[in-house]
Amino acid sequence: MPDPTKREFVEAPAGHGKTEAIVQKVVSLNTEQKVLILTHTNAGVNSLRKRLKKKKTNSSKFDLSTIDAFCLKYSRYYPSLSGIPKNITDFSSIDYKQAQKGAVEIFNIQEFKAYLKKKYCLLIVDEYQDCSLNQHNLVLKLCESIDCIVFGDPMQGIFDFSSEGFTWEEHLCSSFPESEEMTLNKPYRWINSGNEALGLWIAETRERLKSENISEIRFIDLPAQIKTYSYQSTQQTYISETATTISQHIPDRGTVLALIPNIPELNDIHHEIAGKMYRPLQSIDRMDSKKLINFLQDIDTFLRSQRRKPVSLYNLIRNKMAMSCMTGTPSLPTAIKNKLDLYTQASDMEDLRKQGARLRDDNSILYNLILDIYSVRDDRSRAKAILNLMNFIESKSNKKFRNDLWFSAKDAFKKYLIDEKKSLEECGYIIRQKKSFIGRSFHRVIGNTLLTKGLEFDHVIIVDPYSFTSKNLYVSLSRAKQSITLLFPSLSVREYAIQRQEQWR
């Protein structure tokens, strides 16, 4: 029988030194074998890599990866065992669940167990509360060969994989005994920023949220760093009043995060609110933005067929993309519409340009930019002309509030112009994948906890705390380093969602 491996679990509340503990563990080991560090997101990988680099840790001491990238790496090496093809051209279609199951099959083979044991002295898994059952089974399989420490916090488990069979109590607690050597009980994030009182209050609130219904929490006798405000809102005014109230409480300096509850019926409500704010915050998009891909698919169709007429094409660019990202985008004046309606595929471009000779200033520029798209024959030249039109629309807008989406679209066009083998849609996937890998930098933004988990901000504004789940509220509170502002609308976001659905029926 092989020697049993050591397993342990460290409960890691937000801001209590977990990343530093992982780094110190890697640095302290004096062995020729490596440490295998697995986490869930590329942002998490980047954060750990930066911290290890700051400690001048030799990169030969560790391998660092997301769990899915680790699974995919070995599954592609052994397609007959995993069911994952070796050569993948479309990464958007990867079946990661199959890759996870395939990796379990691979590391169930004795030769691969011996390989793990020879290469690694320790496995560290971060953010264990975000594991699915397949990922948990992979970790258990790896633990058969190497010692393992897992870090996690049940109160940050907001992705909820219970529907896939994984539960904290049944799977984590039964598989990993709590560490006797390592405890994380100091709020270092707030101690280091000179706000220990705020950190202690968040830690106390975390314990209350574990056992109490969120409706029983009373936000009274608060530290000086926490402010509360109430405001009036109705079904008709909810978006505008919330936008105004958030704007009124945005600090002049420092990083800022405004958080809206995660309501399935209102996934994009933070975009709507951002568009109405008089002090702009950038609205965050999902990495797998369907709006981006749908827009690029529509443009791809136009590039292939050129059947969409000029007015229709302009409205596609403006209505489907530009108006979702900025305010004050220019509509087509009637004088331009009438002239563009004369266009057919048999039109003489010189005659059409003469038709617009009397247009002045911006109208003349806009008219000719649209005609430029139809004056060229190859797809790349048309795409370049569309990008020029997008730049013009951007220059004439008033306020951009969704830069993440807008610049991803423009970056997809730029990629398309230099890569003749890819469609515009494929370029969009590449751009999002690249951003996912290198991480996104946020400074003054609005979103929800699913989009901002793991990030830190100087100031956090939380709209309608009682509409959050206990876990989502804790994650929201623990993003703040310096101050928290709690906003209480007279109409809750859940009530607003119900009323809006009834209105649309």
From TrEMBL:
InterPro entries: DNA_helicase_UvrD/REP, P-loop_NTPase, UvrD-like_ATP-bd. It comes from the Bacteria. GO terms for molecular function: ATP binding; DNA binding; DNA helicase activity; hydrolase activity. Keywords: ATP-binding, Helicase, Hydrolase, Nucleotide-binding. Residues 7-104 form the UvrD-like helicase ATP-binding domain. It holds the Pfam family UvrD-helicase. This is AAA family ATPase.
